[in-house]
Amino acid sequence: MSLILIIAIQSITSYLATCGFGIIFNIPFKPLLHGGLIGMVAWLIYFFLFQYSGNDFVATFAASLVIAIMSQIFARVCKNPVILYSVSGIIPLVPGGLTYSVMSRAVDNNYDIAIYFAEKVFVLSGAIAMGLIFAEVIYQIFEKVKHHTPKKVTTRLFVSRK
Amino acid sequence: MSLLKKEREVVKKMNGFLRTYRRKDHNEGFVHEVAAVCVLTGKILLQNGAETYRVEDTMNRIANSFAVHDAQSFVTPTGIIFSIENHDVTKLVRISHRGTNLRKVTQVNTLSRRVAQGEVAINELQRELVRIDNSTVAYSDSMQILAAAVASSCFLLMFLGKWQDLFPAFIAGGAGQAGMIYFHKLAKVKFFSEFMSSIIIGMIALASVKLGFGLEMNKIIIGAVMPLVPGVPITNAVRDIMAGDLVAGLSKSAEAGLTAFAIGIGVTAAIVLG
Protein backbone atom coordinates (compact mmCIF):
# COMPACT_ATOMS: atom_id res chain seq x y z
CA MET A 1 0.00 0.00 0.00
CA SER A 2 1.37 3.37 -0.91
CA LEU A 3 2.01 5.98 1.75
CA ILE A 4 -0.61 8.40 0.44
CA LEU A 5 -3.30 5.72 0.57
CA ILE A 6 -2.36 4.87 4.17
CA ILE A 7 -2.46 8.54 5.18
CA ALA A 8 -5.82 9.00 3.46
CA ILE A 9 -7.38 5.95 5.09
CA GLN A 10 -6.00 6.78 8.53
CA SER A 11 -7.13 10.40 8.42
CA ILE A 12 -10.63 9.66 7.14
CA THR A 13 -11.23 6.84 9.61
CA SER A 14 -9.85 8.78 12.58
CA TYR A 15 -11.97 11.81 11.68
CA LEU A 16 -15.12 9.69 11.41
CA ALA A 17 -14.38 7.72 14.59
CA THR A 18 -13.76 10.88 16.61
CA CYS A 19 -16.95 12.49 15.32
CA GLY A 20 -18.89 9.30 16.06
CA PHE A 21 -17.77 9.40 19.66
CA GLY A 22 -18.68 13.06 19.80
CA ILE A 23 -22.24 12.13 18.83
CA ILE A 24 -22.37 9.48 21.58
CA PHE A 25 -21.16 12.11 24.07
CA ASN A 26 -23.77 14.54 22.72
CA ILE A 27 -21.37 17.29 21.70
CA PRO A 28 -23.03 20.15 19.76
CA PHE A 29 -22.51 20.16 16.01
CA LYS A 30 -19.81 22.77 15.48
CA PRO A 31 -17.43 21.64 18.25
CA LEU A 32 -18.01 18.12 16.94
CA LEU A 33 -16.40 19.00 13.61
CA HIS A 34 -13.51 20.83 15.30
CA GLY A 35 -13.01 17.90 17.64
CA GLY A 36 -12.85 15.57 14.66
CA LEU A 37 -10.07 17.67 13.20
CA ILE A 38 -8.13 17.54 16.47
CA GLY A 39 -8.61 13.80 16.69
CA MET A 40 -7.39 13.35 13.12
CA VAL A 41 -4.20 15.37 13.61
CA ALA A 42 -3.43 13.62 16.88
CA TRP A 43 -4.01 10.17 15.45
CA LEU A 44 -1.73 10.87 12.47
CA ILE A 45 1.01 12.04 14.85
CA TYR A 46 0.52 8.98 17.02
CA PHE A 47 0.39 6.58 14.08
CA PHE A 48 3.54 7.75 12.33
CA LEU A 49 5.52 8.33 15.52
CA PHE A 50 4.61 4.83 16.64
CA GLN A 51 5.54 3.31 13.28
CA TYR A 52 8.79 5.26 13.25
CA SER A 53 10.00 4.80 16.82
CA GLY A 54 8.06 1.75 17.97
CA ASN A 55 7.52 3.31 21.41
CA ASP A 56 3.87 3.89 22.19
CA PHE A 57 4.50 5.89 25.37
CA VAL A 58 6.32 8.65 23.47
CA ALA A 59 3.80 8.59 20.63
CA THR A 60 0.84 8.81 23.03
CA PHE A 61 2.44 11.61 25.02
CA ALA A 62 3.22 13.69 21.92
CA ALA A 63 -0.26 13.19 20.48
CA SER A 64 -2.03 14.07 23.71
CA LEU A 65 0.14 17.17 24.12
CA VAL A 66 -0.92 18.29 20.64
CA ILE A 67 -4.56 17.52 21.45
CA ALA A 68 -4.46 19.54 24.64
CA ILE A 69 -2.78 22.55 23.02
CA MET A 70 -5.20 22.53 20.10
CA SER A 71 -8.16 22.10 22.46
CA GLN A 72 -7.01 25.07 24.54
CA ILE A 73 -6.79 27.19 21.40
CA PHE A 74 -10.17 26.09 20.07
CA ALA A 75 -11.77 26.52 23.48
CA ARG A 76 -10.43 30.07 23.87
CA VAL A 77 -11.42 31.07 20.33
CA CYS A 78 -14.90 29.51 20.35
CA LYS A 79 -15.57 30.16 24.07
CA ASN A 80 -16.47 26.57 24.88
CA PRO A 81 -15.22 24.25 27.62
CA VAL A 82 -11.93 22.51 26.91
CA ILE A 83 -13.36 19.05 27.60
CA LEU A 84 -15.57 19.33 24.50
CA TYR A 85 -12.52 19.21 22.26
CA SER A 86 -10.13 17.11 24.30
CA VAL A 87 -12.55 14.26 25.05
CA SER A 88 -13.27 13.35 21.47
CA GLY A 89 -9.65 13.97 20.51
CA ILE A 90 -8.17 11.54 23.03
CA ILE A 91 -10.65 8.79 22.14
CA PRO A 92 -8.40 7.12 19.53
CA LEU A 93 -5.44 7.25 21.92
CA VAL A 94 -7.04 5.94 25.09
CA PRO A 95 -6.11 2.34 25.81
CA GLY A 96 -9.64 1.02 25.41
CA GLY A 97 -8.70 -2.07 23.46
CA LEU A 98 -5.97 -2.81 26.00
CA THR A 99 -8.42 -2.38 28.88
CA TYR A 100 -10.64 -4.95 27.27
CA SER A 101 -7.65 -7.25 26.73
CA VAL A 102 -6.73 -7.03 30.42
CA MET A 103 -10.11 -8.25 31.54
CA SER A 104 -10.58 -10.87 28.88
CA ARG A 105 -7.16 -12.38 29.68
CA ALA A 106 -7.89 -12.26 33.41
CA VAL A 107 -11.24 -13.98 32.92
CA ASP A 108 -9.41 -16.53 30.80
CA ASN A 109 -6.98 -17.29 33.70
CA ASN A 110 -3.98 -15.74 31.88
CA TYR A 111 -3.04 -13.57 34.84
CA ASP A 112 0.55 -12.82 33.86
CA ILE A 113 -0.47 -11.43 30.45
CA ALA A 114 -3.35 -9.57 32.10
CA ILE A 115 -1.00 -7.85 34.54
CA TYR A 116 1.37 -6.97 31.72
CA PHE A 117 -1.49 -5.32 29.82
CA ALA A 118 -2.75 -3.60 32.97
CA GLU A 119 0.65 -2.01 33.56
CA LYS A 120 0.59 -0.83 29.98
CA VAL A 121 -2.90 0.68 30.38
CA PHE A 122 -1.76 2.52 33.49
CA VAL A 123 1.37 3.89 31.81
CA LEU A 124 -0.47 4.96 28.66
CA SER A 125 -3.27 6.72 30.52
CA GLY A 126 -0.58 8.40 32.60
CA ALA A 127 1.06 9.57 29.38
CA ILE A 128 -2.22 11.05 28.15
CA ALA A 129 -2.88 12.76 31.46
CA MET A 130 0.66 14.16 31.52
CA GLY A 131 0.24 15.52 28.01
CA LEU A 132 -3.00 17.25 29.01
CA ILE A 133 -1.45 18.76 32.14
CA PHE A 134 1.71 19.89 30.35
CA ALA A 135 -0.38 21.78 27.82
CA GLU A 136 -2.21 23.53 30.65
CA VAL A 137 1.12 24.54 32.19
CA ILE A 138 2.43 25.76 28.82
CA TYR A 139 -0.71 27.85 28.44
CA GLN A 140 -0.26 29.39 31.90
CA ILE A 141 3.39 30.24 31.21
CA PHE A 142 2.38 31.75 27.88
CA GLU A 143 -0.24 33.92 29.58
CA LYS A 144 2.27 35.02 32.21
CA VAL A 145 4.84 36.02 29.61
CA LYS A 146 2.20 37.81 27.54
CA HIS A 147 0.85 39.99 30.31
CA HIS A 148 4.01 40.60 32.36
CA THR A 149 1.92 41.14 35.45
CA PRO A 150 2.78 39.51 38.77
CA LYS A 151 0.05 37.08 39.70
CA LYS A 152 -0.94 35.24 42.79
CA VAL A 153 0.55 31.78 42.80
CA THR A 154 -2.18 29.27 42.10
CA THR A 155 -2.28 26.33 44.42
CA ARG A 156 -4.45 24.39 42.01
CA LEU A 157 -2.80 23.49 38.77
CA PHE A 158 -5.92 23.59 36.66
CA VAL A 159 -7.51 26.87 37.65
CA SER A 160 -6.93 28.98 34.60
CA ARG A 161 -6.71 32.69 35.17
CA LYS A 162 -7.77 35.39 32.82
CA MET B 1 -35.27 59.99 35.74
CA SER B 2 -31.76 59.71 34.44
CA LEU B 3 -30.56 58.72 37.91
CA LEU B 4 -33.04 55.86 37.96
CA LYS B 5 -31.87 54.76 34.55
CA LYS B 6 -28.27 54.83 35.72
CA GLU B 7 -29.19 52.82 38.77
CA ARG B 8 -30.92 50.27 36.62
CA GLU B 9 -27.76 49.95 34.54
CA VAL B 10 -25.75 49.30 37.68
CA VAL B 11 -28.24 46.73 38.88
CA LYS B 12 -28.09 44.99 35.54
CA LYS B 13 -24.28 44.99 35.64
CA MET B 14 -24.03 43.36 39.06
CA ASN B 15 -26.39 40.48 38.44
CA GLY B 16 -29.13 42.32 40.27
CA PHE B 17 -27.55 41.85 43.65
CA LEU B 18 -27.72 45.52 44.59
CA ARG B 19 -31.47 45.40 44.49
CA THR B 20 -31.50 42.60 47.01
CA TYR B 21 -28.81 44.00 49.23
CA ARG B 22 -30.59 47.26 49.70
CA ARG B 23 -32.52 45.95 52.67
CA LYS B 24 -30.41 44.40 55.35
CA ASP B 25 -32.84 41.66 56.34
CA HIS B 26 -32.80 40.28 52.83
CA ASN B 27 -29.10 39.48 52.99
CA GLU B 28 -29.40 36.06 54.55
CA GLY B 29 -32.05 35.04 52.09
CA PHE B 30 -29.87 36.18 49.22
CA VAL B 31 -26.90 34.15 50.41
CA HIS B 32 -29.11 31.09 50.62
CA GLU B 33 -30.35 31.72 47.10
CA VAL B 34 -26.78 32.00 45.83
CA ALA B 35 -25.86 28.75 47.52
CA ALA B 36 -28.87 26.99 45.97
CA VAL B 37 -27.99 28.25 42.49
CA CYS B 38 -24.33 27.27 42.86
CA VAL B 39 -25.22 23.78 44.00
CA LEU B 40 -27.66 23.34 41.12
CA THR B 41 -24.95 24.40 38.68
CA GLY B 42 -22.52 21.93 40.18
CA LYS B 43 -25.11 19.17 40.06
CA ILE B 44 -25.84 19.68 36.34
CA LEU B 45 -22.14 19.83 35.49
CA LEU B 46 -21.23 16.75 37.49
CA GLN B 47 -24.16 14.67 36.24
CA ASN B 48 -23.23 15.37 32.65
CA GLY B 49 -19.56 14.56 32.71
CA ALA B 50 -17.62 17.76 33.45
CA GLU B 51 -14.23 17.47 35.11
CA THR B 52 -14.01 17.76 38.88
CA TYR B 53 -11.88 20.89 38.92
CA ARG B 54 -14.21 22.60 36.46
CA VAL B 55 -17.24 21.92 38.66
CA GLU B 56 -15.52 23.41 41.71
CA ASP B 57 -14.18 26.34 39.72
CA THR B 58 -17.55 27.18 38.15
CA MET B 59 -19.37 27.07 41.49
CA ASN B 60 -16.82 29.37 43.14
CA ARG B 61 -16.88 31.75 40.21
CA ILE B 62 -20.67 32.04 40.25
CA ALA B 63 -20.62 32.70 43.99
CA ASN B 64 -17.91 35.33 43.43
CA SER B 65 -19.87 37.12 40.76
CA PHE B 66 -22.80 37.43 43.16
CA ALA B 67 -20.41 39.09 45.62
CA VAL B 68 -20.22 36.05 47.93
CA HIS B 69 -16.49 35.78 48.29
CA ASP B 70 -15.88 33.12 50.91
CA ALA B 71 -17.37 30.08 49.21
CA GLN B 72 -15.81 26.64 49.44
CA SER B 73 -16.73 23.60 47.44
CA PHE B 74 -15.75 19.98 47.63
CA VAL B 75 -16.73 17.74 44.74
CA THR B 76 -16.56 13.98 44.50
CA PRO B 77 -18.23 11.87 41.79
CA THR B 78 -21.04 10.96 44.20
CA GLY B 79 -21.75 14.24 45.89
CA ILE B 80 -21.12 17.95 46.28
CA ILE B 81 -20.54 19.86 49.49
CA PHE B 82 -20.80 23.61 49.14
CA SER B 83 -20.39 26.03 51.97
CA ILE B 84 -20.29 29.78 52.48
CA GLU B 85 -18.21 30.37 55.54
CA ASN B 86 -19.31 33.58 57.23
CA HIS B 87 -23.00 32.95 56.76
CA ASP B 88 -23.31 29.40 58.09
CA VAL B 89 -24.70 28.13 54.83
CA THR B 90 -23.80 24.58 53.84
CA LYS B 91 -25.43 22.50 51.16
CA LEU B 92 -24.97 18.86 50.31
CA VAL B 93 -26.16 17.22 47.10
CA ARG B 94 -26.08 13.51 46.42
CA ILE B 95 -25.38 12.52 42.80
CA SER B 96 -26.62 9.07 41.92
CA HIS B 97 -26.80 9.01 38.12
CA ARG B 98 -23.91 10.16 36.00
CA GLY B 99 -23.80 10.22 32.23
CA THR B 100 -22.02 12.10 29.51
CA ASN B 101 -24.01 14.88 27.90
CA LEU B 102 -21.53 17.57 26.95
CA ARG B 103 -24.24 19.72 25.39
CA LYS B 104 -25.54 20.60 28.86
CA VAL B 105 -22.00 21.28 30.05
CA THR B 106 -21.58 23.72 27.17
CA GLN B 107 -24.86 25.46 27.97
CA VAL B 108 -23.96 25.86 31.64
CA ASN B 109 -20.53 27.14 30.65
CA THR B 110 -22.05 29.79 28.38
CA LEU B 111 -24.43 30.77 31.16
CA SER B 112 -21.64 31.10 33.72
CA ARG B 113 -19.70 33.30 31.31
CA ARG B 114 -22.70 35.61 31.12
CA VAL B 115 -22.97 35.59 34.92
CA ALA B 116 -19.31 36.54 35.25
CA GLN B 117 -19.95 39.52 32.99
CA GLY B 118 -22.85 40.51 35.21
CA GLU B 119 -25.69 40.08 32.75
CA VAL B 120 -27.88 37.57 34.56
CA ALA B 121 -29.99 38.17 37.64
CA ILE B 122 -30.21 35.39 40.17
CA ASN B 123 -33.80 34.38 39.53
CA GLU B 124 -33.15 34.33 35.81
CA LEU B 125 -30.08 32.17 36.40
CA GLN B 126 -32.16 29.79 38.48
CA ARG B 127 -34.80 29.56 35.73
CA GLU B 128 -32.20 28.95 33.02
CA LEU B 129 -30.48 26.24 35.05
CA VAL B 130 -33.74 24.39 35.65
CA ARG B 131 -34.49 24.65 31.94
CA ILE B 132 -31.06 23.21 31.03
CA ASP B 133 -31.44 20.47 33.63
CA ASN B 134 -34.81 19.37 32.23
CA SER B 135 -34.00 19.76 28.54
CA THR B 136 -33.95 16.57 26.51
CA VAL B 137 -32.35 17.93 23.35
CA ALA B 138 -29.92 15.26 22.18
CA TYR B 139 -28.92 13.29 19.13
CA SER B 140 -31.57 10.63 18.50
CA ASP B 141 -31.04 7.00 19.48
CA SER B 142 -30.76 5.83 15.87
CA MET B 143 -28.17 8.53 15.21
CA GLN B 144 -26.14 7.35 18.22
CA ILE B 145 -26.34 3.73 17.08
CA LEU B 146 -25.18 4.72 13.60
CA ALA B 147 -22.35 6.79 15.10
CA ALA B 148 -21.20 3.87 17.24
CA ALA B 149 -21.34 1.53 14.24
CA VAL B 150 -19.30 3.89 12.06
CA ALA B 151 -16.81 4.52 14.86
CA SER B 152 -16.37 0.77 15.45
CA SER B 153 -15.64 0.02 11.82
CA CYS B 154 -13.28 3.01 11.63
CA PHE B 155 -11.40 1.74 14.68
CA LEU B 156 -10.99 -1.59 12.96
CA LEU B 157 -9.20 0.13 10.08
CA MET B 158 -7.18 2.36 12.42
CA PHE B 159 -5.88 -0.70 14.25
CA LEU B 160 -4.86 -2.15 10.86
CA GLY B 161 -7.61 -4.75 10.61
CA LYS B 162 -8.67 -6.48 7.41
CA TRP B 163 -11.14 -4.86 5.02
CA GLN B 164 -13.34 -7.97 5.13
CA ASP B 165 -13.98 -7.41 8.83
CA LEU B 166 -15.44 -3.97 8.22
CA PHE B 167 -19.03 -5.15 7.96
CA PRO B 168 -19.07 -7.41 11.06
CA ALA B 169 -17.48 -4.62 13.12
CA PHE B 170 -20.12 -2.18 11.84
CA ILE B 171 -22.96 -4.52 12.84
CA ALA B 172 -21.41 -5.47 16.18
CA GLY B 173 -20.66 -1.88 17.17
CA GLY B 174 -24.17 -0.71 16.30
CA ALA B 175 -25.76 -3.65 18.09
CA GLY B 176 -23.60 -3.01 21.16
CA GLN B 177 -24.69 0.62 21.39
CA ALA B 178 -28.33 -0.31 20.73
CA GLY B 179 -28.14 -2.89 23.53
CA MET B 180 -26.56 -0.29 25.80
CA ILE B 181 -29.43 2.15 25.19
CA TYR B 182 -32.13 -0.55 25.50
CA PHE B 183 -30.83 -2.20 28.66
CA HIS B 184 -30.15 1.15 30.25
CA LYS B 185 -33.82 2.01 29.80
CA LEU B 186 -34.78 -1.41 31.17
CA ALA B 187 -32.73 -1.17 34.36
CA LYS B 188 -30.73 1.75 35.60
CA VAL B 189 -27.76 -0.42 36.58
CA LYS B 190 -24.81 0.57 34.44
CA PHE B 191 -22.84 -2.65 34.78
CA PHE B 192 -25.81 -4.77 33.77
CA SER B 193 -26.29 -2.90 30.48
CA GLU B 194 -22.54 -3.01 29.76
CA PHE B 195 -22.44 -6.73 30.48
CA MET B 196 -25.45 -7.51 28.28
CA SER B 197 -24.29 -5.41 25.34
CA SER B 198 -20.79 -6.91 25.45
CA ILE B 199 -22.42 -10.37 25.35
CA ILE B 200 -24.24 -9.23 22.19
CA ILE B 201 -20.98 -7.97 20.68
CA GLY B 202 -19.16 -11.19 21.51
CA MET B 203 -21.94 -13.30 19.98
CA ILE B 204 -22.03 -11.27 16.77
CA ALA B 205 -18.25 -11.40 16.39
CA LEU B 206 -18.20 -15.15 17.02
CA ALA B 207 -21.07 -15.78 14.62
CA SER B 208 -19.48 -13.69 11.87
CA VAL B 209 -16.22 -15.60 12.13
CA LYS B 210 -17.98 -18.98 12.24
CA LEU B 211 -20.18 -18.15 9.26
CA GLY B 212 -17.19 -16.95 7.28
CA PHE B 213 -17.92 -13.22 7.07
CA GLY B 214 -15.11 -12.17 9.37
CA LEU B 215 -11.46 -13.18 9.64
CA GLU B 216 -9.96 -11.83 12.87
CA MET B 217 -12.35 -12.13 15.78
CA ASN B 218 -10.11 -10.23 18.21
CA LYS B 219 -9.88 -7.13 15.99
CA ILE B 220 -13.64 -7.13 15.40
CA ILE B 221 -14.30 -7.34 19.14
CA ILE B 222 -11.80 -4.61 20.02
CA GLY B 223 -13.28 -2.31 17.38
CA ALA B 224 -16.83 -2.98 18.52
CA VAL B 225 -16.26 -2.62 22.27
CA MET B 226 -14.47 0.72 21.87
CA PRO B 227 -17.72 2.70 22.47
CA LEU B 228 -18.20 0.80 25.74
CA VAL B 229 -14.73 0.54 27.26
CA PRO B 230 -13.85 3.16 29.88
CA GLY B 231 -10.82 4.67 28.18
CA VAL B 232 -11.83 8.24 28.90
CA PRO B 233 -12.82 7.61 32.55
CA ILE B 234 -9.42 6.00 33.20
CA THR B 235 -7.61 8.97 31.67
CA ASN B 236 -9.77 11.43 33.60
CA ALA B 237 -9.12 9.51 36.80
CA VAL B 238 -5.35 9.70 36.38
CA ARG B 239 -5.66 13.36 35.53
CA ASP B 240 -7.78 14.06 38.61
CA ILE B 241 -5.19 12.36 40.80
CA MET B 242 -2.40 14.40 39.19
CA ALA B 243 -4.36 17.60 39.78
CA GLY B 244 -4.91 16.82 43.46
CA ASP B 245 -8.51 15.58 43.45
CA LEU B 246 -7.50 12.34 45.10
CA VAL B 247 -10.91 11.12 46.23
CA ALA B 248 -12.51 11.80 42.86
CA GLY B 249 -9.66 10.18 40.96
CA LEU B 250 -9.59 7.00 43.03
CA SER B 251 -13.34 6.48 42.96
CA LYS B 252 -13.46 7.09 39.21
CA SER B 253 -10.71 4.56 38.58
CA ALA B 254 -12.58 1.98 40.67
CA GLU B 255 -15.69 2.56 38.58
CA ALA B 256 -13.71 2.31 35.35
CA GLY B 257 -12.13 -0.93 36.51
CA LEU B 258 -15.52 -2.45 37.24
CA THR B 259 -16.81 -1.39 33.83
CA ALA B 260 -13.85 -3.03 32.12
CA PHE B 261 -14.52 -6.12 34.23
CA ALA B 262 -18.16 -6.27 33.10
CA ILE B 263 -17.15 -5.97 29.45
CA GLY B 264 -14.39 -8.56 29.72
CA ILE B 265 -16.68 -11.09 31.39
CA GLY B 266 -19.48 -10.41 28.91
CA VAL B 267 -17.38 -10.95 25.80
CA THR B 268 -15.60 -13.98 27.23
CA ALA B 269 -18.89 -15.52 28.33
CA ALA B 270 -20.28 -15.13 24.82
CA ILE B 271 -17.21 -16.75 23.27
CA VAL B 272 -17.03 -19.62 25.78
CA LEU B 273 -20.74 -20.42 25.63
CA GLY B 274 -20.93 -20.03 21.88
From TrEMBL, chain A:
Its main location: membrane. One of its GO terms (cellular component) is plasma membrane. InterPro entries: ThrE_2, ThrE_Dicarb/AminoAcid_Exp. Residues 11-138 form the Threonine/Serine exporter ThrE domain. Keywords: Cell inner membrane, Cell membrane, Membrane, Transmembrane, Transmembrane helix. The chain crosses the membrane at residues 6-25, 32-51, 57-75, 82-102, 122-142. It is found in: Cell membrane. GO terms for biological process: succinate transport. It is a multi-pass membrane protein. PANTHER family: SUCCINATE TRANSPORTER SUBUNIT YJJB-RELATED, UPF0442 PROTEIN YJJB-RELATED. Belongs to the ThrE exporter (TC 2.A.79) family. This is Uncharacterized membrane protein YjjB, DUF3815 family. It comes from Sporolactobacillus nakayamae.
UniProtKB/TrEMBL annotation, chain B:
Belongs to the ThrE exporter (TC 2.A.79) family. The keyword Transmembrane helix applies. Keywords: Cell membrane, Membrane, Transmembrane, Transmembrane helix. It is found in: Cell membrane. InterPro entries: ThrE-like_N, ThrE_Dicarb/AminoAcid_Exp. Its main location: membrane. GO terms for cellular component: plasma membrane. Residues 37-273 form the Threonine/serine exporter-like N-terminal domain. The chain crosses the membrane at residues 137-160, 195-214, 220-242, 254-273. It comes from Sporolactobacillus nakayamae. One of its GO terms (biological process) is succinate transport. GO terms for molecular function: transmembrane transporter activity. It comes from the Bacteria. The keyword Transmembrane applies. Pfam families: ThrE (PF06738). This is Uncharacterized membrane protein YjjP, DUF1212 family. It is a multi-pass membrane protein.
